[in-house]
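Q: Can I see a sequence and its folded structure?
A: Here is a first one.
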Amino acid sequence: MAELPMGKGVSAGKIASNVQKKITRAQEKVLQKLGKADETKDLAFEEGVINFNKQLVEGTKLQKDLRAYLTAVKAMHESSKHLYECLDDMYESDWYGRKDVDSLFEDSDLLWTDFHQKLVDHALISMDTYLGQFPDIKSRIAKRDRKLVDYDSARHNYAAVNKGKKKEGIKITKPASLLERAAPGWAQGILSAHNVAQTSLSRSQAEEELERAQKVFEEINIDLQEELPSLWNSRVGFYVNTFQSVAGLEEKFHREMGKINQNVNDTLEKLENQDTSSDRTQDANHMLSPGGPPAIPKSPSKLRPMVPPPPKVTPSKDMKQENIINLFGEAATPNISVTSPTQYDAPATANLLDMDLDSLQAATTPAAQTWDSWEATEKVAVTEEAVAETENETAQVTTESTESVEMPESFLFKVKAMHDYNANDSDELELKSGDVVLVLSYESPDDQDEGWLMGVRESDWIQHKVLGKRGVFPENFTQRM
């Protein structure tokens, strides 16, 4: 028969003893569950074990979540690093702040690395140390449970031996009378002495086993009675230190990272300003191509608006009228004497055959020199000047339309769409080439973006008399009328 393998220092007797202990414990647990044997109870200790298990579950979850947090920080570090590397690769060497950008990216990488390492040192290592004491205490609690079963078993065995001795004493008296009848007297004395010796030996062994089991149990029980409440109370200080460390490290990290991000933002703004200035200079030296629409400014209220195109050369309505009046006063009626209607010097640059003699006569007659006649003369001059412009028909129709249609209260001036414009957002105005738009003032000046105007198509206003269809449109797609 093959021998069972045994480790160093393990004998067959030791193995047999351990097997016997397991069998005895199993029998005792069965008797306790069946109610045939009482079980030693310690309610304070059982409450301490419940708290210990709860504390272990909470600590394990905290450790798991903290490790997941550190993994996320590491991943965020890598993502941030790749993002900055992408910008660094695209940042051309002759752009503003090239060296500053490189330095800021290095600072960002070092800050992420330092943040992760300090989280490990001040939070994760402390967490691992805190949970490191739980396995040993858990093992000692299990050992205490086993020793309690051994103690209860020894106690029950000792009680059974004492109970059996009393019963055995009663049984011996009866056979003794029988032996006295069947055996010599000397044999009866030997038999009685033997029974007494066996009973005393069993009782002594049971008492010794009980004392030994009680001693072992009480030693481990006393230690745990002191450690479990202390461990339970330590959780408050540990949780406070852990979360304070994480919160403090996060606060410092975000504060320093905010400074780096602000420096990056300032550098990019200066780069954008330089690029915008370059575009403005380029626009001033070059005309837009007549073959296609101009570039659309950036969407209003979403991105930083680009610098608007150079102002149009077409004069405004007020300027046009002022120039026309000056022209009328200087060219049309040079050196005319109101008091001497029949005497005047011939104009140096005008042909008398081309002049409107009726208008001239009305203007030089004292009796007709009233406000109404002067206003009628001015309108004639305005009409003649407008007819000389390229878009004379459009200007004439616009003048008549403005006089006959009531304009909105916020009306400023009119423009004409020179190119089609497809609206990209709900607040933008769709334009077709040739559309006339009534330009309106913004309700709040802060809402206006450079390069964009607010308005409503003249046809929509004439038809509905409401501003529900108003919207914003790029100024450089239109021409002021």
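Q: Show me another, different protein.
A: A second, unrelated one:
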Amino acid sequence: MRMRGGAIAGVFMLLLPIFCANLLSHASPTIVKDLNAPKFRHSRLAKSALQRQTSNEEQSELWTPLAHQGWKPCTESDAASIPEKSEGYVQVFLDGGLNQQRMGICDAVVVAKILNATLVIPQLEVNPVWQDSSSFMDIFDVDHFINVLKDDVSIVKELPDEFSWSTREYYGTAIRPTRIKTAPVHASANWYLENVSPVLQSYGIAAIAPFSHRLTFDNMPKYLQHLRCKVNFQALAFVPHIRHLGDALINRLRNPPREGNMVSNNYLREVTDLKPKQGAGKFAVLHLRFDKDMAAHSACDFGGGKAENLALAKYRQVIWGGRVINSQFTDEELRSQGRCPLTPEEVGLLLAALGFDNSTRLYLASHKVYGGERRISALRNLFPLMEDKKSLASSEERALIKGKASLLAAVDYYVGMHSDIFVSASPGNMHNAMVGHRTYNNMKIIRPNMALLGQVFLNKTLNWPEFQESVVEGHKNRQGQIRLRKAKQSLYTYPAPDCMCQA
């Protein structure tokens, strides 16, 4: 009987792989996805984090606004007034996402000022990654933009009829004498005077493309730096429907509806004009920059197994021809250097170590997270009150921004600028823009110490108290403290001293 039973068991083991393969071939996509779900790498720390307790003192210190740091916004321009006669029209075509376009808009205003020219409202290119065709007027309040800058630069919404031929399509079909495509990265003011002014004088118009990062941050007159700051921090306001939706989300985060009360379709209209009550709840915004593009470009391993690694390798081959930044380093080397984006699991552990507890109202400001809810679940376990646009607003309220990456990002930006704390999981354009804007307004931010976190997450022997001590110590001076801009750094990220004065 034993021999017979052993033989049967042997046959069963031989047939098991075939049986499983046959089962998976008929299984639903959800089951297959679950089997390939990313493995959480820090389960021991996560278990301790779930049992964490924070004192009232820790909570008070965490949510206390930044103390005054001796600096104040300073964008008063002492530039000469607009000349009576414009030298011509300047067009720019801007690519990239919302925040890269935002920087380009600021630089375009300054270039028009340098040239004594009239700026045409910048044209935004269709984003190749997000496929968003939103225009300047879809995102920003164009009348506010023109009015704030009316004493600094002449701006028009569109070209007069005599120049109506000057379109993106016109420049895409042949070499045109009115197109400037040789502007170097971080070009000086003199470069524009020497190379663009003659085109304006000859043709009355100059179209500059590409334009991103085509104006230097260094050796610029103070009035031009101030003008840049004025555009970024005062002139660029979102269109009303973005602000209204943002106000509704902010109110729902600060004053959540009572349990069992559903959000009505009219809730947006009902709360838009409300002011947060004294002592209303606080909330933090987390920009979780963990999309497929970011994951693939980093060359790091994120625990998704062979299936995920193959998918990312294929994506890299299609998008970049196999070229990946820092691909010559091992995953461990990249992590120890702080070059790997933080996963949702790692971001959750960072926040827990800094004192955020499970009663924290967390707003997730992100595009599509790579790995979806399966990957976000580790973060949601630690912060069950986490919300996003979809959970806070009805489909009717989101109709105007649905499928529009730039408008979705604009809502997140607006909510981020009204949060008590802003946390950026990984560096990028959104991180740079928000860090600069909140620094300008002396608002609390948390900038992850990527190198430190990479090293502590590699150390599998750390217990929770040791991990927490390392994280807290490594982030003491990364919560919005003023850092003066250095040469070649962007004033949109480091607004002092170009955009700020010592008070």
